[in-house]
Specification:
Elements lengths: L10 H12 L6 E8 L2 E8 L1 H7 L4 E7 L8 H21 L8 E5 L10 H6 L6 H6 L11 E4 L4 H4 L3 H12 L3 E9 L9 E5 L18 H4 L3 E11 H20 L4 H8 L7 H12 L7 E2 L4 H20 L4 H4 L6
Parallel strand pairs: 4-5, 4-6, 6-8
Antiparallel strand pairs: 1-2, 2-3, 3-7, 7-8, 8-9
Length: 333
């Protein structure tokens, strides 16, 4: 039996899993929550001890959560984008970067696969200025910084590691810092398409679905790296387990029973398994049949369109010290 590992790129989820296993708060992980503009902001700090426990690199991880990210309310999208912009500024300032520091933004992912197209969709909406600083600096208004973008595709399309493409570009163009945007994986249906994660620890593309590519971080790039992503996919074993739990909860409410004896009578010994054991069992059943797939909600097209606008608007606001009406151009109507 192959041991099933929880597929998630979210440090928040990895921290919660570690705390569930150990039954208490852990010294290597610090977290705090706050509400801003009806949006939950969670800050998780992981040190070397936390890395050993969670498998996530040491660093600062900030998640912005709101179910409104899934919807089409432009006013809520604008509010989430404002919160996100404030947090991006925190990362820029903590890295000691000046207001005129040059930035390269990489939109990672496959533009031909909807749930993986978040990165390229974001770069399509960014205010790009690097060429203006080089060719016509006298026409650049005060407050803008040099920003360039690239969507390097995926290795299956280019034959080249994404990390190698970016390292070569960094060596040639010499930006002061790098921002990478990518689609992520989650272990929770509730956080799917409803959470934005930012971190200064870099990113390992494909890690959440078990397809690890070359790491992109300050250690490999030689400059500060800020990674931004939204979980757009989840594995079938997790969806199945959550569905079983929802059915059990529904039946408990209808019957008025919530004791362990009732669960065992209804599901046999399966009803007494803990979460990890249920996931393992479901994975053991699905994997040999080729059914433990990576899945995404059917509304992926609409979601990616709105989510890309939220991230792009936040980046434009955070990177350029200009009036909001010049950087938030995606939420009208």
């Amino acid at each position: 039996m192959e041991e099933w590992s929880i597929r998630t790129d979210l440090a928040l989820e990895s921290a919660l899993i570690a705390e569930e296993k150990h039954g208490s708060k852990l010294d290597g992980i610090m977290s705090k929550e706050e509400q801003r503009e009806n949006t939950l902001v969670t800050t998780v700090t992981i040190n070397e001890e936390g890395e050993r426990i969670t498998g996530k690199r040491p660093g600062l991880y900030i998640t912005v959560e709101s179910e409104d990210l899934r919807g089409s309310d432009s006013s809520r999208h604008a509010a989430i984008s404002r919160v996100l912009a404030e947090e991006i500024k925190v990362f820029i300032e903590s890295a000691g970067l000046s207001r005129d520091a040059s930035c390269l933004i990489a939109g990672l992912g496959n533009d031909h696969v909807t749930p993986d197209s978040l990165g390229p969709r974001v770069t399509d909406r960014l205010i790009v200025t690097n060429h203006l600083f080089k060719l016509h600096p006298e026409h650049v208004q005060e407050g803008y910084r040099p920003v360039s973008t690239i969507s390097p595709g995926v290795m299956g399309m280019t034959g080249i590691e994404t990390g190698d493409i970016l390292l070569g570009l960094i060596e040639r163009e010499k930006p002061d810092f790098l921002i990478v945007v990518d689609a992520l994986a989650s272990r929770s249906i509730e956080r799917l398409n409803a959470t934005i994660q930012m971190t200064d620890s870099g990113i390992q593309p494909g890690a959440g679905i078990g397809n690890r590519r070359k790491e992109i971080s300050r250690q490999t790039a030689g400059i500060p790296v800020i990674a931004i992503g939204i979980p757009t996919v989840i594995d079938a074993a997790t969806v199945t387990r959550d569905a079983v739990e929802l059915v059990m909860k529904h039946l408990e409410e209808k019957s008025g029973h919530d004791d362990e004896n009732w669960k065992q009578a209804f599901l046999g010994n399966i009803g007494l398994l803990d979460e990890d054991e249920k996931r393992q069992l479901i994975s053991d059943v699905l994997t040999p049949a080729g059914l433990n797939m990576i899945v995404t909600p059917k509304e992926a097209d609409l979601f990616i369109h709105g989510a890309a606008a939220v991230i792009a608007s936040a980046l434009n606001e955070a990177l350029h010290d200009r009036p909001p009406e010049e950087t938030r151009s995606f939420f009208a109507g």
